[in-house]
């Protein structure tokens, strides 16, 4: 009925991607929310690119860059002995880049929602910048942070084009739910495709309704429009 | 009085105004309250933020009791200044309770000491019953006291308050004005308060620093600054109601005769003024007495015949504009207005005692 291997792999991929995006996305978002540098617009544009580019374009560039003859792929293979294309690590890298705006934009909105004067008040009370981040900024921006984590997770679950371009269709390594559905349809196995598609539909609906009820409750705009 | 706080800096906002404070010295010790007074945009909040370490000047020097807070390149971060800063909207942490807010800056104390300190601070400001509430659940006046408790709980060396009462409604503001003065005095911490409200300045200040256009115009005791503004700008900011250009005609002891727009006025001035010297003549509206023409006798040196131009009711009093050869403002109670039948065109006599005509000498005309 269900392609359990693909489901397990998909959720492992989504969890890994979300974890990496917390580590990478939070500093980027903090920088975007607090800088007055002119470079901000460029960085914001780069982060938002996956929202407008077709997945095939991103997949194509990643394939070229990460491939065994690409500059990044060659370097990684010679240093780490790791081949990124058509492997799980490869689709993790692709997912991180592809889901970046879904983490960074809500993170940034969450940080921007924290009143600057509260941060200054904390400093004037003798509390260090780092401590202020954990005691004031994180608790007050959590709707945005939660939104970023949930959205990047669920967006990765629903990814298709980039995975297929970079990872192909290797069961247990790169064959995610969406690739499995595509595969089933190609093989005219509509029943398997239907079950898996239904699962994805229910999952996405639940995640989004949880998100929007959270948003209504906190009344903080956590999901800005792509600029 | 030791000059324990030296402020000397300049700061230009990108594409905006310049704030430049030249060697301002203040006695920031004991329980003295200094008020930075000026209109919005005069730079007073910038001075406060520079003192807090939140805004970095372009150049200059700030020292406090011999400790350098800012010296050109070097800027001591706010965390290391040991100050209490209360911003205009109090900036209470919304996710923490009142007592957690007060305890927030006391991380260095042991838990026991911290609890005692929080309890004492809350009791001192009568906030005990709100200890467990969130900021959103208490009134503006209570928030203001929580912000003060939070700042004072750390026993800072200097308290900085930015428009401490402006976020409150008018009755609460009037009520808390007196209370705040008593609290600051009891805290025993030297304080610097920013305000644009003359009543607040008069109520709180031991010393006034008058600011305008990013510069300090005048400093001194409140009564000195308000009654003897050192320049026309100072007089205008302080709300002296009538400022007329005049020429000094003669001086006899402390009595000066000055010609203001063709009208002769007698003023009191303790400085020698040469005849022909230009001076701004300042008269407060509340110092003007009105009477029907040529009927009243009295001691006032200045009697001016004129007509009423208009009258506006304002906060229970009536502000009246008169033409006495120059534009003169007066403030009367409504009853007096009715008795005198004040309306546009009413002929009237305005009387001003000589000591209430304040002269600010300007350019010298030979």
Description:
The complex is a heterodimer of chains A (227) and B (366). Chain A has 11 helices and no strands. Chain A has one domain: MetI-like fold, CATH 1.10.3720.10. In chain A, 77% of the residues lie in helices and 0% in strands. With 227 residues, chain A is mainly α. Chain A is globular. The C terminus of chain A is likely disordered. In chain A, helix 1 runs parallel beside helix 5 and helix 2 crosses helix 5. The relative contact order of chain A is 0.16. Chain B has 366 residues and is α+β, with helices and mostly antiparallel strands. Chain B has 2 domains: 229 residues, Rossmann fold (3-Layer(aba) Sandwich); 122 residues, OB fold (Dihydrolipoamide Acetyltransferase, E2P) (Beta Barrel), CATH 2.40.50. Chain B is 24% helix and 36% strand. In chain B, helix 3 crosses helix 4. Chain B starts with a strand and ends in a 5-residue tail after the last strand. The relative contact order of chain B is 0.11.
List keywords for this structure.
heterodimer, A: 227 residues, mainly alpha, MetI-like fold, 11 helices, 0% strand, globular, disordered C terminus, B: 366 residues, alpha+beta, Rossmann fold, OB fold (Dihydrolipoamide Acetyltransferase, E2P), six-stranded mixed β-sheet, five-stranded antiparallel β-sheet
């Amino acid at each position: 009925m269900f392609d359990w291997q693909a489901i397990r792999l998909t959720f492992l991929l989504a969890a890994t991607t979300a974890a990496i995006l917390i580590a990478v996305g939070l500093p980027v978002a903090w920088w975007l929310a607090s800088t007055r540098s002119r470079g901000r617009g460029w960085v914001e544009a780069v982060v938002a690119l996956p929202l407008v580019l077709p997945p095939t374009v991103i997949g194509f560039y990643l394939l070229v860059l990460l491939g065994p003859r690409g500059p990044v792929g060659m370097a990684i293979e010679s240093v780490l002995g790791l081949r990124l294309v058509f492997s799980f690590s490869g689709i993790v890298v692709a997912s991180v880049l592809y889901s970046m705006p879904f983490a960074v934009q809500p993170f940034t909105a969450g940080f921007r929602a924290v009143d600057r004067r509260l941060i200054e008040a904390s400093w004037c009370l003798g509390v260090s910048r780092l401590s202020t981040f954990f005691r004031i900024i994180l608790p007050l921006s959590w709707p945005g942070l939660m939104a970023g984590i949930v959205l990047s997770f669920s967006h990765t679950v629903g990814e298709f084009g980039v995975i297929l371009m970079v990872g192909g269709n290797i069961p247990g390594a790169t064959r995610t739910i969406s690739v499995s559905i595509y595969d089933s349809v190609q093989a005219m196995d509509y029943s398997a495709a239907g079950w898996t598609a239904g699962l994805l539909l229910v999952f996405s609906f639940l995640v989004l309704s949880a998100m929007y009820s959270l948003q209504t409750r906190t009344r903080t705009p956590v999901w800005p429009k792509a600029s | 009085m030791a000059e324990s706080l030296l402020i000397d800096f300049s700061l230009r906002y990108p594409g905006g105004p310049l704030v430049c404070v030249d060697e301002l010295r203040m006695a920031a010790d004991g329980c003295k309250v200094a008020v930075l007074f000026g209109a919005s945009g005069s730079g007073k909040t910038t001075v406060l933020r520079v003192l807090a370490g939140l805004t970095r000047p372009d150049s200059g020097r700030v020292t406090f009791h011999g400790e350098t807070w800012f010296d050109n390149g070097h800027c001591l971060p706010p965390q290391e200044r040991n100050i209490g800063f209360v911003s205009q909207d109090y900036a209470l942490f919304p996710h923490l309770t009142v007592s957690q807010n007060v305890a927030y800056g006391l991380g260095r104390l042991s838990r026991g000491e911290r609890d005692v300190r929080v309890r004492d601070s809350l009791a001192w400001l009568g906030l005990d019953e709100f200890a467990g509430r969130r900021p959103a659940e208490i009134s503006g006046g209570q928030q203001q006291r929580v912000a003060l408790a939070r700042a004072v709980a750390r026993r800072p060396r200097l308290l900085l308050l930015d428009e401490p009462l402006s976020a409150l409604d008018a009755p609460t503001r009037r009520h808390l004005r007196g209370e705040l003065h008593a609290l600051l005095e009891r805290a025993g911490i030297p304080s610097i308060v920013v305000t644009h409200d003359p009543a607040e300045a008069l109520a709180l200040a031991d010393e006034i620093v008058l600011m305008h256009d990013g510069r300090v115009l005048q400093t001194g005791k409140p009564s000195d600054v308000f009654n003897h503004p050192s320049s026309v700008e100072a007089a205008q900011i302080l709300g002296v109601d009538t400022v007329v250009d005049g020429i000094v005609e003669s001086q006899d002891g402390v009595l000066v005769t000055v010609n203001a727009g063709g009208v002769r006025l007698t003023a009191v001035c303790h400085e020698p003024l040469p005849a022909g010297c230009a001076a701004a003549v300042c008269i407060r509206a509340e110092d003007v007495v009105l009477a029907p023409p040529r009927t009243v006798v009295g001691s006032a040196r200045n009697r001016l015949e004129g007509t009423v131009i208009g009258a506006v009711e304002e906060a229970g009093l009536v502000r009246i504009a008169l033409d006495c050869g120059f534009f003169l403002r007066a403030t009367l109670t409504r009853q007096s207005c009715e008795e005198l039948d004040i309306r546009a065109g009413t002929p009237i006599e305005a009387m001003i005692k000589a000591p209430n005509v304040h002269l600010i000498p300007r350019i010298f005309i030979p």
